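User: Sorry, what's this?
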Amino acid sequence: ATYLFFSEQNHQDIHEDRVERVKKIGQSVFEVPIEPLPNMYEVLDKLKEQGHNLYLHTGGDEGNQGRKIVQLELAKYFEKRVFISEQKDKSALKEILNQIKYDPKKTWMIGNSLKTDIRPAVEAGIHAIHVPSELEWSYNEVKIDIAPKGKLITVNSLLEVPEIIQKHAQETVVST
């Protein structure tokens, strides 16, 4: 579609060999093997052990994201609680939160993207834990310019997440 759009915009002929080449390039994203984040399974096991209901919210093409979920064998952690949004933003997150009938005091977003994970969580009024990527691209460099209603924590390692959530859960019980 992009090739066709720009060909028309620039009054260029459309060549079938180019269409096929562009399709092949686009299809290549479905063939790249996916690597789990370091310690991902250990952290998911621990959160599940602690009794948390785990939900997965990912963004992008449903086919490609579904392939990644299968390849990483995530169904045992999330079961049917998987949400794939074409655009991962505040409105997509709010729609999911409304579906799951969430409690903002007990709901956390854990993610590596300030733009598509952390800022939408802060805007939605839930807790957020940012696990920065080693290499960040400029698309994700955004400021969180609103005061969070919940906790907003940045960690160095995914391994820190279960303890943070468990500690907060204990604080919530004590203060209620």
